[in-house]
Design brief:
The chain folds into 2 domains: 4-190 and 240-257, NAD(P)-binding Rossmann-like Domain (Rossmann fold); 192-238, no CATH class. It contains 8 helices and 7 strands. It is of the alpha/beta class. The chain has helices at 20-31, 43-55, 70-84, 107-135, 155-174, 200-210, 224-233, 241-252; strands at residues 11-15, 35-40, 59-64, 89-92, 139-144, 180-187, 262-265.
Length: 273
């Protein structure tokens, strides 16, 4: 098991850290002693996470950034590495989801998914590799994919996550001569706001499962009480963000002589949304 002492003195960047899996990963690494740099579009929840990490004795900063601004993302990664003198962990977690069929997906929505899920991840990986090489720190790239990548009925979203797996494996092979390891982590169903872009029928179905009527506009965040209710009512069908954070923590705590190409973390029972 990874010791918290293994995280002390390390520098980590986590994208999509405003809520859900990214927030949980930032909290896990920060509480273990890493200096964590949160990246996301929503300032208040990141500020709250920074406060929680500080209360646990850790160090964290929040960076408000739209990952579709690829130049800004690369510049942020360079700045973090240059100021700290190292970059040990890059977690490319930010993502946009949809459960629409391929023929029903809007072109603009598909473009945004590829931009955030694939291109921003690629930019993050390239900038992180450059920073790790420049500072000589070595480290881990953890790319958050999804089990949707293996389900051919997962629409355009599934295609973007399949691309994440392809890029991760290609990078792993390209970096075998560096002290940089690459892991693709595929969560199953997790109780997060990633479902906010699902069809209204699907969102209403989630509410019905937990006994809470839901009428949300597309893109609107689900109330935290709904996510908590889903976790409590369907514990064997829905994983918690903390479960994924624990898997990331395990990976980045391993020595660089090891390479874990892929980890799948899914609930004990299968639920399709």
């Amino acid at each position: 098991m990874t010791s918290d002492s293994a995280m002390r003195g390390r520098t980590a960047i986590v994208t999509g850290a405003s809520s859900g899996i990214g927030q949980a990963i930032a909290l896990r690494l920060g509480a273990a002693g890493a200096a964590v740099h949160l990246v996301g579009r929503t300032a208040p929840p990141m500020a709250a996470t920074v406060t929680r990490i500080a209360a646990a004795g850790g160090s964290a900063t929040a960076n408000v950034l739209d990952l579709r601004d690829h130049d800004a993302l690369a510049a942020l990664i360079d700045r973090v590495a240059d100021e700290s003198g190292r970059l040990d962990v890059m977690v490319n977690n930010a993502g946009i989801a949809s459960n629409r069929a391929i023929l029903a997906e809007e072109v603009d929505a598909a473009r945004e998914m590829f931009d955030v899920n694939v291109l921003a991840l690629l930019v993050g990986c390239r900038a992180a590799v450059g920073a790790m090489r420049r500072t000589g720190s070595g480290g881990h790239l953890v790319n958050i994919s999804s089990t949707a990548a293996r389900q051919p009925d997962s629409g355009v979203y599934g295609a973007t996550k399949a691309a994440v797996g392809y890029l991760s494996e290609g990078l792993r092979r390209e970096l075998e001569d560096d002290d940089i390891r690459v892991t693709s982590l595929l969560p199953g169903v997790v109780a997060t706001n990633v479902v906010r872009n699902f069809t209204p029928e699907s969102v209403a179905g989630i509410g019905a499962l937990v006994g809470v009527p839901l009428e949300t506009a597309p893109g609107e965040r689900l109330p935290e009480k709904v996510l908590e209710a889903a976790q409590n009512a369907l514990g064997t069908h829905i994983a918690r963000p903390e479960d994924i954070a624990d898997a990331v923590y395990y990976v980045v705590g391993l020595p660089l002589r090891l390479n874990i190409p892929e980890i799948v973390v899914r609930p004990a029972r299968t639920m399709r949304i």
